[in-house]
Design goal:
17 strands, DNA-binding, globular, Beta Polymerase, domain 3, Beta Polymerase, domain 2, seven-stranded parallel beta sheet
DNA sequence: GCCGTTTTCGGCCCGACTGTTTTCAGTCG
């Protein structure tokens, strides 16, 4: 995961070059490279050794050298040089929303400001008004920006963003004159964390929508308000951007505001090469300005000679080439899901009885749920002794005798102990239908040790699925150190599935890792890690990750009907 | 700094909103 630090370095280079007024296209090249590194899920060091860095999009000779330099020294000299020769504090100042490179230059050169704290003092003392083009309003806006920065513009996870968006959509839907409404932006693309919420409204009377928006209980402050675009802040400090569009160009606007930015840039480049222009109002011929479409999103893609591309794929990660070649994946969908594997009940730390879970699973149209309560070592979660596990199995068998067209699988989430052995002996595991292997202890072991633990669990014939393979908890705990390439290869080799844990703070594997695992031949499974009935809904979030990973139904274990699932498990046990 | 169905040189996406302006620069997405 070194590429994240490197991406940050490239991004800092871009910021500093921008401050210095360098060539904007050079700056963009750094930003694009940073973005691509952020999304890259392979093994950077391996690619570098093979001399194949330039195969990465946006990486040419110069940036390939800088990557190599970083991999061997842990630093990029060009960045260090820029930092040394640029006024101190520039990178910190640029963090303030609304403060860009030009303003930063004024602040550092005219007033010698080098920290956000100094900026705040200067603004409060009205010293900024001495600057050209500065009056009271700009001073206040910078103070507001500092306030937002201090609150921490922390991105929210989908578990928060989705319900909030649903509530806003419901409210705006009721405004008269509104004909269509949709989320856009990173939420529609189902990115794991969301910065601002983007909403799109088709209406013939924009003013009414903007007025209604400012009066919502969820509107704590109006940040900006124009005729077609407004931004508000919710009481929890979430920024919501709302665009009102004429119904005739709703599709073009939806395409435009769904992004990603990188995807859109590629599309507009493609348009220019065809003598076309693409903007949020539609696709136009450059010469005549004749409009070729824009009411539906598909119109936009069609005008560029492409099939419609699913929002989750729009990250400039090969989807445009795939679309051109007619090789877009048939992404997994909610209706493909036949069951859920990682379900806790009152037997360990869940809050629902087996029977309630069975009823709910059947009501959702699933064929099966695997009950996987914790194993004996995990005392904090009321892990089950072998005796209790067997009593639970007895109860599940009894329940299954009464169920028609639905089955509870007898499973367990079994700790992978610090020495790599399983928390139940193999003869007990053999009695279960479904075995999850999980790491819940020894997070700080070395990469080699943790990787060995996972691999030895996968070599156990009874282990069907590795849960939350990296152990990360967004905002709380970093992933523990494991060699993902080795783990993925081992999963493929042993016929062990890897989980896409759909708990909003986990999303583990994440999209890029899941895509890589699939590329290396591993089978995946979306499971919700449910501890109470409503958490079964998180399957939607897991589906988002799977779709962003380009997964098709055949790549996912829980898209298989029961008999095929049981065959898959049996095959590993026999081998 | 990258890149090639217009190119190995000369291009490189597009528009809205704000504030301070009488026509535009800065910032953002």
């Amino acid at each position: 995961m070194k590429q994240h630090e490197l991406a940050a370095f490239f991004s800092q280079i871009a910021d500093l070059l921008e401050y210095r007024g360098d060539n904007p296209f050079r700056i963009r090249a750094y930003r694009r490279a940073a973005q691509n590194l952020e999304n890259f899920s392979g093994d950077l060091a391996h690619l570098a050794q093979a001399g194949r860095l330039r195969e990465l999009p946006g990486i040419g000779a110069d940036l390939a050298d800088k990557i190599t330099e970083y991999l061997s020294t842990g630093a990029v000299a060009a960045l260090e040089r820029l930092k040394r020769t640029t006024a101190p504090g520039v990178l910190e100042l640029l963090e303030v929303p609304g403060l860009g490179p030009k303003t930063a230059k004024l602040l550092t050169e005219r007033l010698g400001i080098s920290t956000v704290h100094q900026l705040e003092e200067a603004a409060n003392a009205h010293r900024l008004r001495r600057l050209p083009g500065f009056q009271e309003k700009k001073e206040q806006n910078l103070l507001k920006g500092i306030e937002i920065l201090k609150k921490g513009r922390e991105r929210m996870h989908l578990g928060i963003a989705l319900p909030l968006a649903r509530e806003l959509l419901r409210s705006l839907q009721r405004v008269s004159g509104v004909t269509r409404i949709s989320t856009a932006g990173s939420l529609r693309r189902m990115k794991e964390t969301i910065g601002d919420l983007d909403l799109l409204v088709a209406s013939t009377s924009p003013a009414r929508v903007m007025q209604a928006l400012s009066r919502l209980p969820l509107c704590a402050r109006v940040l900006a308000s124009g005729t077609t675009k407004s931004s508000i802040l919710t009481p929890d400090g979430v920024q919501v951007d709302v665009r009102v569009i004429k119904p005739d160009s709703f599709g073009a606007a939806l395409q435009y505001f769904t992004g990603s930015k990188e995807h859109n840039v590629r599309l507009r480049e493609l348009a220019i090469r065809q003598g076309l222009k693409l903007n949020e109002y539609g696709v136009f011929r450059l010469k005549t300005n004749q409009r070729l479409g824009g009411r539906e999103e598909a119109d936009v893609y069609r005008a560029l000679g492409l099939p419609w591309i699913e929002p989750e794929l729009r990250e400039d990660q090969g989807e445009i080439d795939a679309a051109k070649a007619g090789r877009l994946p048939r992404l997994v969908d909610a209706k493909d899901v036949r069951g859920d594997f990682h379900i806790h009940s009152t037997w360990s730390d869940g809050s629902n009885q087996l029977e309630e879970l069975a009823r709910e699973g059947a009501a959702r149209g699933y064929d099966y749920l695997a009950i996987c309560d914790h194993s004996q070592s995990l005392k904090v979660a009321h892990g089950m002794s072998v005796a209790r596990l067997r009593r639970q199995m007895e109860q599940i068998r009894a329940l299954n005798r009464r169920l028609r067209g639905f089955r509870l699988l007898m499973g367990a989430e079994v700790d992978i102990l610090t020495d790599g052995s399983m928390d139940y002996p193999n003869d007990v595991l053999a009695e279960l239908d479904f075995v999850i292997g999980s790491i819940h202890s020894g997070f700080s072991q070395s990469e080699a040790t943790l990787t060995r633990r996972l691999v030895s669990a996968m070599r156990n014939p009874y282990v069907t699925l590795i849960a939350h393979p990296t152990g990360r908890l967004m905002g709380q705990r970093d992933p523990y150190a494991i060699d993902l390439e080795t783990v993925f290869a081992s999963a493929a080799e042993t016929g062990t599935a890897l989980e896409i844990n759909a708990f909003p703070r986990r999303l583990d594997l994440c999209d890029t890792a899941a895509r890589r695992a699939n590329a290396l031949g591993a089978t995946l499974a979306i499971s919700t890690d449910t501890h109470s009935l409503d958490q079964l809904d998180n399957i939607t979030i897991g589906l988002g990750v799977a779709r962003r990973a380009w997964l098709e139904p055949r790549d996912l274990l829980n898209c298989r009907p029961l008999n095929r699932l049981l065959e898959w498990i049996a095959r590993k046990r026999a081998a």
